[in-house]
């Protein structure tokens, strides 16, 4: 071995550990600096129409996998993006407009980014199978670009009335007392909605009256998705069987209150049965009175008029139209009137719906006629500290909740 080679070997043996340490530190620093940041989230403003399955920042593009769960074909007409880093055109399945998306199919949203911050919103305008024009906003939230690995889209937290709406000046009247026997004086006359236990539910409302009553209380009428999410038992289907329903909720003569409510109806006071509540503590989401939501839809099939119909079982996409109840959905049904257009979505069933009552149970009538069995409840936004007003509870939807909503989203499948 020559002297130069021997010197090199001695140097490596003496200082090799230091070189290894330096290389390790450099590699760690490089890993930290180049690692993608976490925390990028993709969410849908209406996950019962378009649901986010996964999302990521891939290079200089925001990319999301979206599912059409409207129950029918949708035609995307416009894709508009807002955000400091967004450049147009955004595309779906590599097309910028006039995109046909079959029911239940997955589509890829791809938006180019000119900067590192992907925070923004992408509005997808589309026409559904019934010819209705709708918008869904896909929101991307993060301070730094990075891979998400795919995150389930969640609804924002919101507040919902714990009890079915009553008039704000209503007073207590015992369930054993009839309307003509004294309860008419306890019903109240205020046009402001309240959420209070032990009151006769406010009925005979058309949808606009319900919306105005909520607005007068500083709230809004709940959407169908919000209503369903509040009825969700931590991701488990809230489908009480016939016997349990009859023993816990006001759905038939075993528990309804004879001639107690407005017009000698059979509704009981709000919150009368402590067992008829969702895991979040929201009462009477099954039975007592139907509850208007802010949603509406069109129905195109004559075979569904003036009748109870039921969803098919374990089939995708879910469709209403069967004559046999489905155990998967707790035997709940949908009742449709004869009017084809602008049917308002009512939820839950009423005091005589029997086994067809439930959180999947749906009432589709024009919202311009008030009925003795038709009520409502209100929703609102929480404070910055996620607090709700009096008589309301906070709902924070989870990934399980969103899966639940996807499973039961067959309202617009009435074709």
Report on the structure:
16% of the residues lie in helices and 27% in strands. With 415 residues, it is of the alpha+beta class. The protein folds into 2 domains: 41-141, Gamma-adaptin ear (GAE) domain (Immunoglobulin-like, Sandwich), CATH 2.60.40.1230; 158-413, no CATH class. The chain has a 7-stranded mixed sheet with strand order 16-15-17-19-18-14-20. The protein has a 5-stranded antiparallel sheet with strand order 1-9-8-4-6, with no helix packed on it. A 4-stranded antiparallel sheet has the order 2-3-7-5, with no helix packed on it. Strand 2 and strand 3 form a beta hairpin. The longest helix is centred in the N-terminal third of the chain and has 32 residues, at 3-34. The termini are far apart.
Number of domains: 2
The biggest sheet amounts to: 7 strands, mixed
Could you state the oligomeric state of the chains shown?
single chain
Number of helices: 5
Question: What structural category do the secondary elements indicate?
Answer: alpha+beta
- Helicity range: 10-25%
Q: Identify low-pLDDT runs.
A: 3-38, 143-152, 233-243, 410-415
Work out the strand percent: 25-35%
Gyration radius, rounded? 27 Å
How many strands in all? 22
Give the averaged pLDDT, no decimals. 76
User: What form results from the Cα inertia axes?
Assistant: elongated
Q: For the terminal residues, how far apart are their CA atoms?
A: 89 Å
Strand sequence of the main sheet, in spatial order?
Answer: 16-15-17-19-18-14-20
Order of helices and strands: HEEEEEEEEEEEEHEHHEEEEEEEEEH
